[in-house]
Amino acid sequence: MTSSPTPGLTRFNALEEAAATAALHEACASSAWGSKLLAQRPYPTVEALFVASDAAMAELTAEDLAEAMAGHPPIGRPKPGDPTSAREQRGMAGASEELKAELLELNLAYQEKFGHVFLICATGATAEFMLGQLKIRIENEAEEERETVRSELGKINRIRLTRLVEAS
């Protein structure tokens, strides 16, 4: 990990509060998570930012997690015009129509069971892998799934924070 501030981290540390809040909201829609990260600026290293992100993620309530998940489109249906969700769901690009239809059907069943979208760190994952994970996770109990979602969201946040602090 980075042991000194990157130019992107230095820029993030120097942002006005409103701009920093907006940047963090792009990474994660949870206002509680964003507030906790904002309150700890400036960050001496990227690793310190990651540690703060992980700690804030661990403290999120069920309501905070719901707010964070609301910022994520269903797998297989990235937000139109949103390059982040399109990039993160790139693994769906070559999926067959049959696989997409099965994923949609299971997504709906998952939402019915848990009350929120199926959340997975899709970066680098194939459509087949995501479908396999959905088939496994739909069998989870609610509390187990909430903790799995928390873990997946933490991975997504790290990837998005990396993009934020590595941008030139």
The proportion of residues forming helix, as a percent range, comes to 55-70%
Number of strands: 0
Radius of gyration: 16 Å
Task: Report the sheet with the most strands, covering strand number, pairing sense and barrel closure.
Answer: none
The DSSP helix count reads 9
Task: Estimate the strand proportion.
Answer: under 5%
Report the structural category.
Answer: mainly alpha
- Unreliable stretches, pLDDT < 50, 5 or more residues? none
N- and C-termini, Cα separation: 18 Å
Mean pLDDT equals 88
| Order of helical and strand elements | HHHHHHHHH
Task: State the assembly state of the protein chains.
Answer: single chain
Task: Describe the structure in your own words.
The radius of gyration is 16 Å and the shape is globular. The protein contains nine helices and no strands. With 168 residues, it is mainly α. The chain is 65% helix and 0% strand.
What's the short version?
This protein is mainly α and 168 residues long.
